[in-house]
Structure formats: structure tokens, C-alpha cells
Write a structure and sequence with these properties.
D-Maltodextrin-Binding Protein, domain 2, 2 domains, 3-stranded mixed β-sheet, alpha/beta, 357 residues
Length: 357
Amino acid sequence: MNNYFKIPILLFITFAQSAAYSIEINGTGSKIPESLIQEWSKVYQTRFPKAVIKYKASNPTDGLKKLVNNEVDFCSIDNPLNIYELKKNRLIQFPLVLGGISPVVNLPNVSQGQFRLDGKTLGDIFLGKITKWNDPELAELNPSIQLPEAEIVIVHRTSPLGQRTIIGEYLAKYNQEWKALKGQTMAGNWPSGSIAVNDPIENIEMIKKTPYSIGYGPVSAVTQYGLSYIRMKNKSGYFVSPNDDSIRSAAIHTKWSKGNGFEVDLIDSAGTASWPLSMVSFVLIHQGGGKLDHRKEALKFFRYGLRFGTLNVAQGGYIQLPYVVKSSTRVSLEKAIGSKEGRKKPPTAKVFAENAE
């Protein structure tokens, strides 16, 4: 074949490759927002067919490491980085949704919210200092329940050393021995007979099939599986249940500021109705360097989701950010993108089956 015929063929191949080009954005990190991000990605691709958003959870520590090493385009974490850490790694941080962690029990004849605990006592159970359900300390907190004379079975997630967790941070506030041994983590040794599992759903399923067990999991999963959540004593001294209102109360009683990367701590927030194990899922994206087109597409994806994906939030058992925080977050994303493009409601936003703000 002479060169005269080669040139049109090469031009055709180049054009075909350009027409089929798509951008793939990858993320990892916390397990908690995984289903929400995956649902948003499906809808986003109907609006922007050439953008493929993939998220596969691992854990926040792994996600952050991969992001810093430029192995992924974004990651999700459960505990925010401070402004020093953000500047050091040149990262943008913003909140995604609210959620919570709930301790749960599997006890005969004990219904949802009937069993009560405080932070110190929960820590003593997980440390193996309280080993039976009819222990005097538990009986004092639960005078209306006939507690069984049975051994407590602890179910817990495996956790990397040094990984700060919501429940670990909460226990460290109220149980000094926990703080000394484990800090704000759930790593390290557990009492003999404890059952270790790998992820939140496996945790919940194990508790459900193990009589006389105690454990913890995301509030959304606890509700979905119908487990007996524990009413926990909050900072104001009230025993509260984990639900949308109590988690939203924790968010409302917290000061948010985009100036510090939205770094907030909802754990043991003020407010008589606030759930003490409330949390925020955060997203981290590179501020500069790496692939500019990947960074901008990731920012556009989350801006779109925060504006038009609120129904997916509710259906997934998540809780929306306070309106002012969500609006401020979207403004921050637009500034990071460097464009006002997309502020108007797109024609296909109705696929979210909701009324946008």
C-alpha cells in the first residue's frame, strides 16, 4: 500500500479514537458513601456520557494514601484533615453527606432503643472489663430490663493501626483506659472470644446471627437490617436514638467554615437531641498537579450530585448536609473548577426524580 492510501486511513483511525474518547475518574476510601457515589455516577453518566466515575471502597487510610500517590482522582474519609494537612498535600476537602455510627445489641426480648449505654461503659465492654450482660453497671443503666446472665460476645471490624475512627474517637473521650490503650482507633487486641469481621455490612450480619452479641455499624445499615440499636447518653446528659433528626441536630449545633476546609467534628456535639456518634463523609481531591481534566471532572461530578442528587441521599439512608453548608460547598467547588458552567439546572436533571433546590 502506498503512502497516498495510508494517510486517509490514519486520519479515520484518529477521528474514531477521538469520538470514542471517554474520561475515567477513579476514587476509593471509606465504605460508608460507596453506594451513594455509585448511584450518582450512574445518573451523571446519563447526562455526561463520556464521563465514567468509578468508586471502590477500601478504607480511609488506604484512600488517602492512594490519592497522595496519584493512584486515584479522589478519596472519601470519615474524619476531616486539618488545614495544615490539606495545604501540605495540596488537597481540596469538602463535606458530602451526614451519617452516624450506632452501637447495637442482639439480646432476647430487647427492642430497638430499649437498651441504654454511656461512653465509658461501652468502652469497658469492648475492653473486656464488663463480660456479662447482667453486670451491675449495665443493670444500673437499664433498670427496666431483665438482663440475662450470659457472656457478652463482641463483634468488631478489623481496623488498620493508626486509623482514627468515629467510634474510637468517641470512646477516647469518655474512657481513659481506652484512650491510653487504643487512642482514637479500633485497632489492636480485643478480648478473647471476640469476633472480627472485615466490613460494616458483614459486621451487622454477624451481630444479627449471634445471640448475646454487641457491635456497631452505620446507622443506615442498622435501620435496614432491623437491629436493636442502643440509646446512647449524649453530651447534654440525655439518652438519644440514632435517626435523621438526632444526626441533623449534631450538624446544626456545629460551626462550619469553608476557610478551614470544612473541618468539623460532630462527635459528641452540643444539643439535647444530638446523636453523639454523628459524622460527616468528606471528599478529597487534588488542588493542583496531576491531570487537570480528571480533577475538573471529579469536581463537576460532586457539584452535580450535591445539587441534584438529594433523593439518592434519602433513599440510601444518608442525611443531607444543612442547606447553608451544602450551598457553601457548591460555591467552593465552582471556584475550584474555575467556571460558573453548569449552575443552571440541566435538562436531564429530572432523572433524579426530585425537585432541585
